[in-house]
């Protein structure tokens, strides 16, 4: 339940300071977690990035106020963080489909996004298959890319990286190098938000005990207790669904917390779009 309570504190903080220029670092601190892990948790639990939630809520409140008060559009623009009425009107119409003046005149429909309340999913209809492993340290070798987590950029870029390594033969090279403690190709997420705001490293790699091959970099994963979740089904939907289950069902009810070190997606050989494709999610826990 600690995860649910910490997330709700962050949401309450956003709502309390909804008209202020609050930073993602301030919001994440309310949940006692890093920016990287907070943004991941928030998006998995709500299906939208933090910045998008703030934008939707602000324009919901703006629409309510314009439609039921004498607030002028120019004053609404300043109140809700826009320098000009024109930029405010453009963003307002993007959400609602009508202009602020039309909202004041009760012309057209508006979209209302209500305040979020985080709840535990207690249905338990879909069983989760997992086991615990104590493993490491583990050396992995591969290619590293620095990515921004802002506005979900990392989620857009990572699939493109996998497409590239599959086309240029990098994935085949990494499979041949695989002689370490984890079988399969690895997708490794490394939080860098404590060094650079909103930044992460993403690795496509392979566990490899030998010397560093030319053209690759290496990363040592610390010894950890891992919760290893089985994923059955085609990519990317199957693994996305298990990630959501982990944060909405498993963490709130298991008593475990994320250890804060890199977590892994492990991809086996075979057709990733097949109904019987097998992959895993490895999460370091404490």
Overview of the molecule:
- This protein has 286 residues and is an alpha+beta fold.
- It has 2 domains: 2-104, Arc Repressor Mutant, subunit A (Orthogonal Bundle), CATH 1.10.10; 130-284, Multidrug-efflux Transporter 1 Regulator Bmrr, Chain A.
- Helices cover 41% and strands 21% of the residues.
- It has helices at residues 2-16, 24-29, 35-46, 50-68, 73-79, 85-96, 100-104, 153-168, 170-177, 237-254; strands spanning 130-135, 138-148, 185-191, 199-207, 217-221, 224-232, 263-267, 278-284.
- A hairpin with a 7-residue loop joins strand 3 and strand 4 (199-207).
- Helix 5 (73-79) crosses helix 6.
- The longest helix is centred in the first third of the chain and has 19 residues, at 50-68.
- The two termini are 15 Å apart.
- The mean pLDDT is 90.
CATH architectural label of the largest domain:
Alpha-Beta Barrel
Summarize model confidence as the mean pLDDT. 90
Q: How many beta-strand elements?
A: 8
Please report which band the strand proportion falls in: under 5%, 5-15%, 15-25%, 25-35%, 35-45% or over 45%.
Answer: 15-25%
CATH class of the largest domain: Alpha Beta
* Number of structural units classed as domains: 2
- Measured as a percent range, the helix fraction is 40-55%
CATH third-level topology of the largest domain:
Multidrug-efflux Transporter 1 Regulator Bmrr, Chain A
Major beta-sheet overview: 8 strands, antiparallel
- SSE pattern, N- to C-terminal: HHHHHHHEEHHEEEEHEE
């Amino acid at each position: 339940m600690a995860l649910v309570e910490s997330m709700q504190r962050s949401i309450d903080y956003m709502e309390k300071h909804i008209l202020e220029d609050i930073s993602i670092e301030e919001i994440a601190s309310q949940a006692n977690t890093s920016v990287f892990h907070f943004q991941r948790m928030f998006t998995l639990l709500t299906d939208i990035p933090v910045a998008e939630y703030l934008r939707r809520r602000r324009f919901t409140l703006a629409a309510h106020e314009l439609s039921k008060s004498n607030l002028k559009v120019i004053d609404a623009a300043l109140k809700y963080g826009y320098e000009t009425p024109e930029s405010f009107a453009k963003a307002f119409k993007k959400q609602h489909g009508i202009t602020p003046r039309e909202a004041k005149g009760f012309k057209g429909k508006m979209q209302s996004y209500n305040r979020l309340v985080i709840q535990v999913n207690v249905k338990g209809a879909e069983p989760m298959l997992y086991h615990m492993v104590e493993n490491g340290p583990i050396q992995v070798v591969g290619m590293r890319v620095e990515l921004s987590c802002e506005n979900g950029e990392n989620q857009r870029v990572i699939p493109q990286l996998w497409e590239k390594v599959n086309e240029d033969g990098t994935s085949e090279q990494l499979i041949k190098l695989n002689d370490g403690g984890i079988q399969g190709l690895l997708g490794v997420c490394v939080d860098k938000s404590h060094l650079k705001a909103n930044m992460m490293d993403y690795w496509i790699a392979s566990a490899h005990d030998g010397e560093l091959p030319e053209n690759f970099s290496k990363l040592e994963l610390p010894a950890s207790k891992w919760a290893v979740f089985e994923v059955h089904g085609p990519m990317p939907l199957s693994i996305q669904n298990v990630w959501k289950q982990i944060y909405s069902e498993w963490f709130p009810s298991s008593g475990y917390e994320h250890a804060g070190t890199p977590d892994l997606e492990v991809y086996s050989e075979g057709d990733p779009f097949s109904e019987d494709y097998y992959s895993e999610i490895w999460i370091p826990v404490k």
